[in-house]
């Protein structure tokens, strides 16, 4: 059976104030063309269909158009909700849509209720694990501690139990939206840390033939059977080096997996350039970036006059301007943002405690801080779900 694995469409999202709806529509057209031209048997979408719980009308219309066109092709589609989606909203009408071959899996309780597709070699069971917010689903999965590894592990136990009761030789695919250990993050994924640990080991997906992952925006292979498709479009300059693509996955009669990357259309190249303003305006090697979306980091000791307007004369699609003067590491004027770079909320809070009282927090105090951050994130998720 041949699958097309994609995720993280983020319909409705912009890129530094640039409306991406046309680029998202072009991607949908490319996906449909790939389905036709490469004889795809099923499409799997591993979450974050929308960029937010209440998407703009234009994004909903694009999604509706995509569903109609997929249904017209007669190729089954399985999709799950991600942490950006409202699972309840995305799942409205799932029963009716199911009849058209579009299978929306947004209910955690139904994770072991597969979509069964059949080819010449038998059945393939598709299990959808929507994004599992630990604080919201820990009771459903009867876990003691609300953590990502615990709830996903419990969901996978249900999947394996269901699979064990099916006919011998039944192949299996799991769709999941999670941060799996070994994956590389970018700046455009929303933090899903709970309990200080967001990552789950890839081994949690043992026992299935293929795990189609969503959440991280870079296409990645964590094992021959565990892959991220990545987002089809860039949503931050940290993705400047990404090759945006989908996975074309062939699952053989014995469950053997072969995968090929299928490139997605690029609306415009991304470039990150760095130097003084004069260097950026004069360097002939930067000519290749003149038609790109540009993030410029200025290293001038003193902010130059009207830098954005001057940059746009050469790089008309400059979208982001960062000031990072070249200074020695112990310079007291090094920016606050630079000092906090790559530090988690927990680490920043602990640094503050150390600064105020001269000693860092003990283990009990660290747990209090961790619980406070978890409560804030859970509250934010509940508000998002309730919208």
TrEMBL record:
Signal peptide: none
Ranges where the Nuclease SbcCD subunit D C-terminal domain occurs: 267-355
Keywords: DNA recombination, DNA replication, Endonuclease, Exonuclease, Hydrolase, Nuclease
Domain Calcineurin-like phosphoesterase stretches: 1-218
Assembly mode: Heterodimer of SbcC and SbcD.
Family: Belongs to the SbcD family.
Protein's job: SbcCD cleaves DNA hairpin structures. These structures can inhibit DNA replication and are intermediates in certain DNA recombination reactions. The complex acts as a 3'->5' double strand exonuclease that can open hairpins. It also has a 5' single-strand endonuclease activity.
Record-given protein name: Nuclease SbcCD subunit D
Organism: Streptomyces venezuelae
